Amino acid sequence: MQLDGKIAAITGGTAGIGRGIAEAFLAEGASVTLMARNEEKGQRVLDELGVGERCRFIRGDAMVQADVERFVDATIDQFGRIDVLVNNAGGAGDMQPVYQLSDEEFDSCMKWNVYSTFWASRRALQSMIAQQWGRVINISSTEGKVGKPVFTAYTTAKHAVNGMTKSMAQDVGTMGVTVNAICPGLVITDIVKDNGPATAKSMGLSFDEMVDLFAQESAIKRPNTVEEVAAMAVLLASDAGAGITGATLSVDGGSAPY
User: N or C: which end of the chain has fewer CB within 10 A?
Assistant: First the structure.
C-alpha cells in the first residue's frame, strides 16, 4: 500500500495509460479523481473499477483551461487536498509532414499536450506547496527525446513537456514537491489501435509494419505495456520517489538514446 491515503488526480484517466495508472494507484491505497470528455464512459469506468467513493469522475476537456482548473479544484473540494497530479491527457492528433501541417493542427497539439499540463500543474502546485508535499507526473513520450517523420507537432509538444518538467522541478524542489516525466515508447492502447492505421499510412506503412518498426528500435523488441508505465508512476508518486525530480524517465524498452 505505497499510496495509502494519498489523493491523486489523473487527466485522460478513463482509458489506456491513464486508466492503467488509476488502477495501480487504487490498488496501492490511493483515492483518485479521473477527468475525460465522455460522461457516459466515465461513469461506466467507475462502475468497472468498483471502489466506491475512492474514485470519482469529473467531466472535462483537457484543451479547455477552465475545465482543467475546475478538475483540480474539484479534486481538492471532494477529498480535501491533492497529493499527486498525473498529466496524462494528450495525443498526437492528425499526423502530417511539416510542410503540410496547418496552424490549427499544430496549435491543437500544443493545447492538448503542453497547455493542459501547464494549466493543471500550476493549479495543483499551489496546493501542494502549501502542504509541503506533492508529486507531479507528466506523461510524455519517447518522441520527447527523438524525432520521427510526420510527428513534428507531437515531437515538439513532448519536448516542451520534458523541458517544462525540468524547470518546474527546479521551482519547487525545496518545497517537498517532485516533478517528473514518464516517456513511454509504443504502448498498444485502444487509441493507438483506432488512430494508428492513419499514422502508419502517413508514414507509408501498414499498422503492423509501424508497430514492428517501433518494436525493432527497442532493446526488448516489443511494445511496452500499460502496466509497465503504471509501475513507474507508482514509484514516482510514493515516498520512495522523493529523491527523483526533474527526470524524464523512459519506459520504452531501450528505444531512446538517452
Answer: C
